[in-house]
Amino acid sequence: MLNQAEVDAIARDIFAQHERADVFKPFPEKVPAMEDAVKIQDAYVALLEKKYGTKVAGYKIALTSKSTRDWLKINEPCVGQVLGTRIHQSPHTQKLSDYVRFSIETEICVVLDRDLNSEVGIDEVQKSLRSIHCSYELVEDRAADLTKLDARSLVSDNSWNGGIVMGPPGDIKLDFNNRKGRLRVNGKVTKEGTTAETIGGNPLHVVSWLAGHLGKRGKVLKAGFPIITGSIIETQFPVAGDVLVFDADGMPPVELRCVP
User: Which of 103, 127, 177, 247 gives the lowest tally of CB atoms within 10 Å of its CB?
Assistant: First the structure.
């Protein structure tokens, strides 16, 4: 395990890489264990909070599909923290020049009405819902070679979260087992997927897992925090001029406009 000085040094290096807009290079040899990666992420996010004068106000879950976890040889998803200044409402316009390489993922976003500090059943998550939304994750992978990715490097770099975009709230009583969604780019349906792609085939299972994950680390999954639960469509790489609209059956759409 790394000591705190080693954790802080790696976090400062990641921060500096982002400041220089460096291409992402994995560094698993510097991070012996996933617990080290989690500590590095916390230290890196603290630097972001200081820079932007904000606090963590949400979470992302990465690697919710079994095929991706098998590829990276890990047995559970990965968490990223979302800064308050990076939570946007639909319609949102994004400057692609703010990113080394910009991509998006189409996700169901959950907001709870009460705190959770341990893993609970999916029925308990359903009872705890405040709102549920179609959403995008804005991803900064810094032009990484996606064939040479490891989970410890990804988590250390805050799981590449660049922000989220939330659509209007939908009906919290909807059944989210195998709910279908579709992405339209410039008015044309280009991709489709279902919530079956996420843990347990339902985004609420992801929320339950996150509450347990945080609880083991002495943290609380707070009411009011948006939680994006994993993409139901593979990662997309929009270009300037694209207008993207994502919706899931029975839910209002979320819109993103991309400019240079």
Answer: 127
Rounded distance between C-alpha atoms, residue 93 and residue 90, angstroms: 9
For the chain, give every domain's residue range.
54-259
Rounded to 10 degrees, the C-alpha dihedral 152/76/165/178 comes to 150
- Can you give the pTM of this predicted structure? 0.95
CA distance 64 to 230: 6
Strand order, beta sheet including 188-194 = 92-95, 254-259, 243-248, 180-185, 188-194
8 A C-beta contact, residue 166 and residue 87: yes
CATH fold for the domain made of 54-259: Fumarylacetoacetate hydrolase; domain 2 (3.90.850)
Q: How far apart are CA 60 and CA 77, in angstroms?
A: 10
Tell me how far apart the alpha carbons of residues 134 and 85 are, in angstroms, rounded to a whole number: 19
Q: Which residue has the tokens 């992801």?
A: 206
DSSP assignment of 138-167 equals EEE-TT--TTS--HHHHHHTGGGEEEEEEE
Q: Which residue has the tokens 């996150």?
A: 210
Q: Are 221 and 100 in contact (CB under 8 A)?
A: no
**CB contact set of 3 (below 8 Å; sequence gap of 6+):** none
Q: Which helix (H) or strand (E) holds 60?
A: strand 56-62
Span 29-74, pLDDT tens digits: 999 999 999 999 999 999 999 999 999 999 999 887 665 666 666 6
Q: Please check the confidence at residue 146 and state whether its pLDDT lies above 90.
A: no
